[in-house]
Amino acid sequence: MSDFVTTLVKAAADVGAELKWRKMRCDDEDHCRAILVPMLKRHIGMAALLGNARCAIARLGVFDAPAGVFLQRSRAPAHLRQRRDSALDHFDMRRVALVT
Predict the structure, then answer these.
(1) Rounded CA gap, 29 and 82, in Å?
(2) pTM score > 0.85 for this model?
(3) One domain for residues 46 and 70
(4) 35 and 4 in a common domain
(5) Does residue 61 lie within any of the structural domains?
(6) N- to C-terminal Cα distance for the chain?
(7) All residues at 6 or more sequence positions from 32 whose CB lies less than 8 Å from its CB, including other chains
(8) By C-alpha distance, which of 90, 89, 100, 83 is closest to 47?
């Protein structure tokens, strides 16, 4: 991670530790901060990964091939494709609710 993101994560963890260390049932603020830093890094990393994937999928339209074409060529049976698609929709909706 860049220096800016590391500084941002540390500042957010400091504030979170001050406010929430008792609610998180930690012994002190340092223990809470040790929990919050990796959690924040993981959330920021996943948000960056998902954003990059959305940009890559959006670029597929530039080559006159909609994203659905690649899903249709799957060798999985129809009921498994449907299960996968509904799971992706559910995951996406949960992620949007957490971000906004």
Answers:
(1) 46
(2) no
(3) no
(4) yes
(5) no
(6) 23
(7) 16, 17, 20, 21, 24, 26
(8) 100
Say if 5 falls within a structural domain.
Answer: yes
Question: Which tokens hold the place of 85?
Answer: 């698609």
Domain interval for residue 24 = 1-50
Structure tokens at 36: 């919050």
Is 99 domain-assigned? Answer: yes
58 inside domain: no
| SS (HEC) of the chain | CCHHHHHHHHHHHHHHHHHHCCCCCCCCHHHHHHHHHHHHHHHHHHHHHHHHHHHHHHHHHHHCCCHHHHHHCCCCCHHHHHHHHHHHHHHHHHHHHHHC
Total tally of structural domains belonging to the chain = 2
pLDDT band at residue 95 under the 50/70/90 scheme: very low
